[in-house]
From TrEMBL:
The keyword Transcription regulation does not apply. Residues 1-25 are annotated as: Disordered. It comes from the Bacteria. This is Fe-S oxidoreductase. Residues 216-301, 348-423 form the Cysteine-rich domain. GO terms for molecular function: 4 iron, 4 sulfur cluster binding; metal ion binding; oxidoreductase activity. SUPFAM superfamilies: 4Fe-4S ferredoxins (SSF54862). It holds the Pfam family CCG. InterPro entries: Cys_rich_dom. Coiled coil: none annotated. The keyword Iron applies. It comes from OM182 bacterium BACL3 MAG-120619-bin3.
């Protein structure tokens, strides 16, 4: 157990349930006291100053206050810090020596989440933010025939982008992802989970005394479904190439991470109630679950279990959820990963996504890619700064680009054959920053696409 005044401890960091159903959670006076307490601890430490813009904002407020302490900050300015936090979790994971079980009990990201939730409940949220966090709705509309072309052309048309900047606050220079007219779940509709077939397969496995999972459920995610379905294609190709069948859940909605970051906890709960039963059906049939966007994996593995600790289906789904490379590495340890690679990847600059690091699974992507002959992977462990919405807003794009600069610099220095990130949004943000400096720079490529390249599939 940590002692007063001592940094850190010997116990592994842990997290407490969010307790959003406790009336005290929504008490604004109680929140402000907790913000003052934690801000004061952060002020005395300042290790996190280089992570994002939340901490420089806090420290500037303190340094410019009359007392040069937290008590000199106007309480109304507390939210200036909250607005800069996009819940990457890196402060909790990599820097803070006072996380639970330390007696100071500092969980900065979840405190920011609580503040965001109270702000949302009070109506202190922009219309734009409600729209751009509705990723499933936008995807469904933007993928419709006719509308699809208009959206993609509009996203590249300067007058329209200038209008979006002025009216909605979506920065005219932010690169918006294209939308497909052929969503992944529509293309791969034949993979929709069939309970009867799963039951028959379970009987076969039981008769054969099978102990390994032969099928995974792919949670396609809003991004891979509507923006880059090629990544979902790569998941299916890689797993089937390794003898693992792939199912899609009977229905799928946004994981809820964008709404969580907005503080819209009611919508998070509604999305949970839509997603969990369908995913749980596949888990009961013996499937594990994978998703190619780390934020979605983290949502099911960590955030939903902390919000709904008594929900047995949520807990079961969380235990069954894997990062794709985490599962592929598991196959390798079992001697079941196909190592018949056709092509080397050479030097790879690999950005380790924040929400993958928070899963505490180790460098599984690097370990798997380095099984490929003549392939060397160099990790870049910095936040990309995009977050999905932070990197498109008029007031924060500048900060998002600034946070990405150390990554861009490392890639330029490494001059790799390939670069990319498990988070496709982070990969595109890094790519956009590289192309802002050199128009002819190469494109980011997702590690799952790299595997397909190495396999020659």
């Amino acid at each position: 157990m940590a002692h007063e005044g001592r940094e850190g401890g010997l116990d592994a960091p842990t997290r407490h349930p969010l307790n959003q159903n406790d009336p005290q959670f929504w008490d604004e006076d109680n929140l402000n006291k907790e913000l003052e307490r934690v801000y004061d601890i952060c002020h005395g430490c300042r290790r996190c100053v280089s992570l994002c813009n939340a901490f420089p904002t806090l420290f500037d407020l303190i340094d410019e206050s009359p007392t040069l302490e937290v008590d000199g900050i106007d309480v109304a300015d507390y939210n200036k810090v909250v607005d800069q936090c996009y819940l990457c979790d890196l402060c909790y994971l990599t820097k803070c020596p006072y996380v639970p079980p330390h007696e100071w009990n500092v969980d900065f990201p979840h405190l920011m989440l609580r503040a965001k939730a109270i702000n949302f409940k009070k109506g202190d949220t922009k219309f734009r933010d409600n729209i751009i966090t509705s990723t499933d709705m936008i995807g469904k509309v933007a993928s419709l025939p006719g509308i699809n072309t208009l959206v993609n052309v509009g996203n590249k048309t300067a007058p329209i982008r200038a209008m979006l900047d002025k009216t909605l606050g979506i920065h005219k220079d932010a690169k918006l992802p294209p939308y497909t007219s052929k969503p992944a779940r529509k293309t791969h509709g034949a993979l929709i989970f069939d309970p009867q077939k799963a039951a028959d397969k379970a009987i076969e496995n039981q008769a054969a005394n099978a102990t390994v999972h032969e099928r995974v459920t792919l949670f396609t995610t809003c991004y891979c479904n509507y923006n880059e379905p090629s990544i979902a294609d790569s998941v299916i190709k890689v797993f089937e190439h390794n003898g693992v069948g792939v199912d899609l859940a009977a229905r799928e909605h946004c994981c809820g991470m964008p709404k969580l970051e907005l503080g819209d906890l009611k919508t998070v709960e509604k999305l949970m109630e839509k997603n969990i039963p369908a995913l749980y059906e596949t888990v009961k049939a013996g499937n594990v679950i994978v998703a190619a966007v780390p934020s979605c994996v983290l949502m099911f593995k960590q955030e939903l279990p902390l919000m709904f600790p008594e929900n047995e289906q949520v807990q079961a789904v969380a235990k069954a959820f894997f990062d794709p490379f985490e599962y592929l590495h598991k196959l390798h340890k079992e001697g079941r990963l196909n190592l018949d690679f056709k092509h080397s990847l050479g030097n790879v600059s690999y950005h380790v996504a924040c929400h993958q690091r928070v899963q505490n699974i180790g460098p599984k992507t690097k370990l798997v890619l380095e099984l490929i002959q003549d392939t060397m992977v160099k990790n870049i462990e910095r936040c990309s700064g995009h977050d999905g919405t932070y990197g498109v807003k008029s007031e924060t794009l500048e900060f998002a680009n600034k946070i990405a600069r150390p990554i861009v610099k490392q890639i330029e220095q490494q001059a790799p054959d390939h670069y990319g990130s498990d988070c496709p949004v982070a990969g595109r943000h890094i790519e956009n920053n590289l192309k802002n400096k050199a128009k002819d720079s190469q494109d980011a490529i997702h590690p799952l696409d790299l595997l397909c390249l190495a396999y020659g599939i």
